[in-house]
Amino acid sequence: MTVVEALFIFRLAASEFSSAKNNKVIVIGAVVGSAVALLGLVVIVIWTRQRRFRGNDEARGGRNSEQSKDGKVKFFPTGAASVVVEGGDVISLLDHRLDENADTEELRRIARVACWCIQDDENNRPTMGQVVQILEGVLEVNPPPLPRSLQAFIDNHEDIVFFTEESSSQSSQPQSNSLSIDSSQAKSTASTTDGDQFQRLVTKPPEKLPPRITRRVSSILLIQYLTCACCHRNMFLALPPENPILASHDAIPVIDLSGLDGSIECRMMTVEAIASACAHWGFFRIISHGIEISLMEEMLKAVEGFFELPWEEKMKYASEDVMNPVRYGTSLNTPKQHALHWRDYLRHFGHPIHNHFHLWPSQPPNYRVVTKEYLEEIWKLAIKISGAISKGLGLEWDYIEKSLGEGCQIVASNYYPPCPQPHLTLGLASHSDHGGLTILMQNEVDGLQVKHGGAWVPVHHVPATLVVNIGDYIEILSNGRYKSVEHRGVVNAERTRISVAVGHGPEMTAIVAPASPLVDEKNKTKYRPTTYKDYMRAQQSSAVRGKSPLQDIMTSTTTENA
Length: 562
Ligand SMILES: O=C(O)CCC(=O)C(=O)O
Ligand SMILES: [Fe+2]
Known about the structure:
Layout: H1 3-13, E1 17-19, E2 26-28, H2 35-48, E3 65-67, E4 73-75, H3 76-85, H4 104-117, H5 128-136, H6 148-155, H7 183-189, H8 197-200, H9 221-230, E5 254-256, H10 264-280, E6 283-287, H11 293-307, H12 311-315, E7 326-329, H13 334-337, E8 344-349, H14 353-356, H15 367-392, H16 399-403, E9 408-416, E10 428-431, E11 437-442, E12 448-452, E13 455-458, E14 466-470, H17 472-477, E15 487-489, E16 497-505, E17 511-512, E18 530-531, H18 532-541, H19 548-552
Parallel strand pairs: 5-6
Antiparallel strand pairs: 1-2, 3-4, 6-14, 7-8, 8-9, 9-16, 10-15, 11-14, 11-16, 12-13, 12-15, 17-18
Helix pairs in contact: 1-2, 2-4, 10-15, 11-15
The structure holds 2-oxoglutaric acid and fe (ii) ion.
């Protein structure tokens, strides 16, 4: 593909992106083969953004070119590429609204990779994988040669096809004040380049990795990455320096839930086992839970099917509003955090299902039906376990159930693609869940870790089991007797991990506060009351680290009363 062809396609298909299944980077859906060339142009658009290439400048009539004082028409990509090739001031090309507020090195890297992507000979262009690594600073990139087809615009500056800024539904009329070059002409000027040019791209790992760490370029993220890099935002999620030592065994308690359907002794023993697990771990594995294995498998498949949809289909559910009933994204609050997880997620409300069913993803075709069945079963299971937890706290069986009102169920499906540098990043940073109980299912790839006694303990995949953890709502309701436990997701270099975490909490308007039977003169309230909606919003909007949202509503127990 020549640059001109790429420009045409960019012009006509600017919004058509799809995910490359394997390497999880953005490509342009309409392009078969040379997506990298188009990527190079997209990169130039993003980095220089408004003023010339996109033609926002009305004075220039929305063209991707401008006329200099000597009357010559300059094609902006050519000018930009020349600056990059000659080692000029890349900051001068930056969107002026950014007030030169960018990291020159980062920008130079972006600019160079953009120019390598639009080399005339496809063999000289980097692979998507190399693009990603260069942008991340893992590989170094040398200055590129000026693409010959851009050189053609210098040589034939009066013969330029201008593309207007109108949407692709309008025809792309040449705006030339003279003749036009069509793509075949440009092709003829773009002969293949020397075989050794690719060598000049030579990318070598830097001696040490950059300090800011999350390497996350998935379907959503390449664009975010580039935009944020241009805005000089720190979007990397670093591991905490004092990472606790990782215990190597999986020691969370295992509870046979069939005990809750047995004799009274059996029930009480199971209640005690759950109470002990909540008090000491906040996490436990359940067996004999009553959810059909086939349903679990179908749910995992439906979720996987969603993540494998084309990018544009998934993006229908992207939202920056943390309270949106359906959300597809990456970190919980990407615009605010500028710190990204190595994962994509789909998060939406479940119970009461009739309120939300119609909003759920309509693809893959069986997603809604399977999810409905799974969430209904999981809701019943959550209520059953909540009964045992209530009893274990010395409350009535139905205390927690009643406190939920209509209740709220949220399913968060997480998709963690393989990561080339897994030890340097996280799929999901340490956090506690805002709800009462989370019931989690994972595919056969490990990655969940629970903080216990100052160490991170892995929770391995065990077929047919589910993992339960208590969240902030139960910590608050128990007046701190049970603690919601921090957990996180790590990633690996080989396999995609999928987890489906279903959280259960009260209806949005419910007041979140300690259960009154658990508050007295001796046990003063440890948490300030708030509505669940406000708490959830605060939790979802904060940088997802540790338990800070919960700490924000803690009282000084020595001074405050219920
Ligand atoms: O992927 C996992 O195992 C953890 C998921 C999780 O903690 C969450 O979605 O809240
Ligand atoms: Fe979680």
